[in-house]
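Cont'd.
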Amino acid sequence: MATSWGSLFQDEQQLEELARQAVDRALAEGVLLRTKQEPSSSDVVSYAPFTLFPSLVPCALLEQAYAVQMDFNLLVDAVSQNAVFLEQTLSRARTGSLAVWGHLCSFSSALVLLIAQEKERNIFDQRAIENELLARNIHVIRRRFEDVSEKGSLDQDRRLFMDGQEVAVVYFRDGYMPSQYSLQNWEARLLLERSCAVKCPDIATQLAGTKKVQQELSRAGMLEMLLPGQSEAIARLRATFAGLYSLDMGEEGDQAIAEALTAPSRFVLKPQREGGGNNLYGEEMVQALERLKDSEERASYILMEKIEPEPFRNCLLRPGSSARVVQCISELGIFGVYVRQGKTLVMNTHAGHLLRTKAIEHADGGVAAGVAVLDNPYPV
Amino acid sequence: MATSWGSLFQDEQQLEELARQAVDRALAEGVLLRTKQEPSSSDVVSYAPFTLFPSLVPCALLEQAYAVQMDFNLLVDAVSQNAVFLEQTLSRARTGSLAVWGHLCSFSSALVLLIAQEKERNIFDQRAIENELLARNIHVIRRRFEDVSEKGSLDQDRRLFMDGQEVAVVYFRDGYMPSQYSLQNWEARLLLERSCAVKCPDIATQLAGTKKVQQELSRAGMLEMLLPGQSEAIARLRATFAGLYSLDMGEEGDQAIAEALTAPSRFVLKPQREGGGNNLYGEEMVQALERLKDSEERASYILMEKIEPEPFRNCLLRPGSSARVVQCISELGIFGVYVRQGKTLVMNTHAGHLLRTKAIEHADGGVAAGVAVLDNPYPV
């Protein structure tokens, strides 16, 4: 991607002035984060890091990403409904066995229970959702897993109650990583999953999003098995896949490890859970593979072909740093909305995008990426 | 004023939860302040202190305040145009002599020069105005007095130029207190006043807002002299006046001082400039009057009958403090817009309100008021 802001990058004084204006505007528009020092308090806050300029994105790619989102919604649903596939895939990654509770009930109110962390720098993103719902007269209560295990309960119809109020929807903003679960939290999650409240996401949908499932989906015949008769959707999905390689014990895994050790710059080693920041590259990856290659532990990782986007220049704005024009790469995500009641599809659509951009820094001869900041696509 | 939120004041846990929601909402809506520690930086910011609940204001009083605002606009304009009145009034308060420049010109652009302080906690209030103007394609440049003296200039038609750009409007957010003027700043102000740019406010309008002028306006016959033939406006204005007493040398001043020394709880002693926080009450006032009464310095103060509003309860929210339900008093201000070209009145209207509320704290047997926070009137 080229940029058309080149001339603005030259004039440092103008760049600083634009940066000051942009930061004040971002703050005033609510692009906020709590501080690292005080993640439980809104006494002082800061802005979410962002790019001073939008980044150029080819129209065709943006349209492709939007178009394929509905296919991904269908695929994730198909995976989450396929208990056999999930169990087979994830048992190899050392998760426990899976039971999915299916139970429908109607609700006497429209209360949303937001499962929140105490330390939450990103609370303003959550508050925006609370405010949108409140404007539609839908109330949200924020509780921690600990509150659920102390004060949550089910009645004989598995209706969920919290502090005496019936809950219609449980929205998880905690519990995405194993490290976020104490024994007490697992019990609270179990209670929520057993209830007939709508879970966003339920445990099966959450597990469908693991890297291990992603890797399994790239194997020949898998999409055809999960989405029978939908050859066009499958073609659109497959066009977006990068190479993903299982490290399960066996010949296939041995071969993938051998390839990665031969050409480490072409691969990245990822733990099979969500959450970023745990990926291994270059020499670190080689050391990990050497350590893991004869152990069953290797099955909890996957190897991925490294995507090598063309870097471009942008100016990253972060609290405490002056405006920096650097070489960047971006990652585009599309939000999807999907509602199914029993066998009836109620809604399948996209709902906006998220472009995240990070500086590429050359370290140890490889490319180590910094933490991504918010960006906006400028379609060209 | 009574309140109808009484029941909410009882439940401390609910109050804390409401306070957290309100603070996050205020932050997300841009009710921001830079911190005391870093008033020149937007790296971390806080919220402007505010009341958790609106405060009850009788409809009739709110309407009266709005109705009289246009009269005040006319009065301030009349005072600012009356150089003789201003000079006579303010020379007794030891200001220099006054010359008002009148000069009209047309502008080739609509650039606004905002005179800003480097340390400005309240920048987000200013940015909101910048953004509103920018949405109308009117650009604002922020400069300090120091920048004006270094890079500002007038051409032979007294057009004002800043960094090579012609300025149509100068908007002062610095220079309201004598302490904000160095010699360099006075020279910059003089340059701006001499220019044909529209000043918001010009020096005469600014001087019309001093306490000394306010006191002079309360003297018999003054309103009639300034607004000839406008008896209805005068009646509306006078209905809002509290007792104001000159301390000029002479019998009238001696009598005012004697009254204040006899009944100190009924009076407050104010320096004749704007800016708050310098008022003297009770024993402090008595000591100051004893010290000043035989000195010409007393003319730079005025005595004011203390307004004794009925206290009411509200909950004040401030960064770093937990929600506090306290006895409060309020002050209502109405924003006015007034534009005149030569002798033609172009616009005279009101433009919203500002309700500020502060806790009353009982100290030294008197009432000392804390610093006011933002509030909203709830008309009843």
